[in-house]
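Hey, quick one: can you model this chain's 3D structure?
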Amino acid sequence: MEKAARKAGGRLRRDFGEVEHLQVSHKGPSDFVSKADQVAERILWDELKVARPGWGFVMEEAGEIEGDEDQPRWIIDPLDGTSNFLHGIPHFAISIAVQEPKLGGGGWGDVVAGMVYQPITDETFWAEKSRGAWLHDGRLRVSGRRQLSEALIATGTPYQGHGDFAEWSRIFGAVGPNVAGIRRFGAASLDLAWVAAGRFDGFWESDLSPWDTAAGCLLVREAGGFVSDYRGRSQPICDSQVIAGNDQVHSRLHKQIAAALK
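Sure thing. Here's the predicted structure for all 262 residues.
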């Protein structure tokens, strides 16, 4: 994963330096896909296919590609934070995760490895199930802050064609007055990696995709944190609804969000 991410990340760094020259096409309202995005995904595909020939893929641009029966699959976002990238904002990441099939067949089970790589800062956040979460070779732990009044919380906001403005407004109205600050940086994989690193104390967002959160969910859990949906249910990949933080911040965020949505 690291070899693939660094190779794709080198190409993204080069293209980021020439962002004004990128070929950009519309994929939907306020949702752009750049030539850099497509090239990075192809690099990841090529590298990981060679490393694990029988594994499947779930990718943001190319979609789902089935692998051999009973083999794991890669879940990939080649450029999380595309809008930041295209506007020259140096906050974006490559996200790669490995998900195993359920024993006995019938769907997909746990995410067992994940990596979030920030090409501009050259930071590699990685985790393996039951082996902890790491930034390079340093162990990660979620923040130790217990009270929301001390907590810096990350989120993602709805935008044109995406998300539920009314729902987000209710949650923001409940959470905002009780926390030390709220940040919206525009790359969910990095938000979750920063929760694992203790930079953020908590995170909530909805209307995401598996490639946005698969690696990040594992990072938070392996750093000692909790991840669930808005109803408090823990799933291998929380994407349609995500709450993350240490035990106390997660619990308090969950209560605030649940009350706001009643």
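One thing worth noting: The two ends are 42 Å apart (CA to CA).
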